[in-house]
Write a structure and sequence with these properties.
two-stranded antiparallel sheet; binds protoporphyrin IX containing FE
């Protein structure tokens, strides 16, 4: 379907359509309860999740530059016998803001550039993003998907300096409050002459910082949404679920952003390793 013209796309060109497929903890557990991806997310603070909007056996992440393509491709894939839709969420990414050579990030629905810090170098991606093993999952990764409704009105009513203190970066440029350029990480030890942290104690970039959490980096690729309510469809990829759960726990302790959020859908999925002609998608984890 992604390769070019496909009857099921109703005459539309596939363009840059991608389909990322993951399987939920129940199916991974059935193969081996010790595999990465077998563990589900524990409950967290500020959740209001209907049972049907939690978890699931299959993740289909459809992305395309043409907003018409994902719903058509989704309808085609959902016509697969045995597949039943549990929950869905659509979202969009705004215009690309240049971050560094070959890296861009969009703004989110609170106006801040989102998706700057993450595993960028091949060494970081090897260490924190891709699963090196065991064999049935090697080359895959763990996705976390959270629909996070945001109190945009309350946030927008804050003076810009207070908005920036919530995140720890400048709203217009994306530069950390400790200085530098947009591509730089925050310097968490930097202080004003009178001894206050430039990046406040409750700033999101401090509470979520890998060194503060004591976990690895996650590749965050989130989508802003407008319906059913304004917010962020948070998506992260990491090779250890603990990276996500430990980061969220650190945020729950003191993050100034968290009180603006209510999570209304959630799931974690093992993103399957890639495929070729000899080994169809999923055949390594589920040999026939
Ligand atoms: C609606 C909710 C959220 C919003 C609007 C949001 C937004 C942002 C923004 C604007 C940044 C700073 C720029 C950047 O590095 O991309 C950031 C950084 C970050 N966020 Fe979030 N975020 C949200 C939820 C989360 C959650 C749930 C997690 C993980 C549990 C998370 C993890 C991170 C991490 C790891 C960083 C990088 C921190 C650093 O090292 O500087 N965020 N987020």
């Amino acid at each position: 379907m992604t390769a070019g013209k496909d009857e099921r796309l109703l005459g539309l060109p596939a363009g840059d359509l991608t389909v990322t497929v993951g399987v939920g903890p129940r199916l991974v557990q059935a193969v081996d309860p010790h595999l990465p991806g077998a563990k589900d997310l524990p409950p967290a603070a500020r959740e209001a999740i209907a049972p049907a909007d939690r978890g699931g056996d299959l993740l289909l992440q459809l992305c395309a530059g043409d907003p018409l393509v994902p719903p058509i491709a989704a309808a085609a894939l959902l016509a697969t016998p045995g597949v039943r839709e549990r929950w869905r969420q659509s979202g969009a990414r705004g215009p690309h803001i240049p971050v560094s050579d070959g890296q861009t990030a969009p703004r989110n629905v609170l106006g801040f550039v989102d998706g700057i810090v993450g595993p960028r170098t091949p060494a970081e991606q090897q260490r924190d993003l891709w699963l090196a093993g065991p064999a049935p999952v090697a080359g895959g990764t763990i996705a976390v998907v959270r629909r996070m409704v945001l109190d945009v009105a309350r946030f927008a009513a804050l003076p810009v300096a207070e908005q920036e203190a919530v995140f720890g970066r400048r709203r217009d440029t994306g530069v950390p409050l400790s200085g530098g350029s947009i591509a730089d990480g925050p310097e968490l030890g930097a202080k004003t002459p009178d001894g206050r942290y430039l990046v406040p104690a409750g700033a999101h970039v401090r509470r979520a910082h890998a060194n503060v959490v004591g976990a690895g980096l996650m590749l965050r690729r989130s989508y802003s949404m407008d319906a059913p309510a304004p917010g962020l469809l948070f998506v992260s990829f990491q090779n250890d679920l603990h990276t996500f759960t430990a980061t969220l726990a650190s945020m729950e302790a003191a993050d100034a952003l968290l009180p603006f959020t209510t999570t209304t859908a959630s799931g974690t999925f093992l993103v399957l390793p890639g495929f070729d002609e000899r080994r169809p998608l999923g055949s390594i984890l589920f040999p026939s």
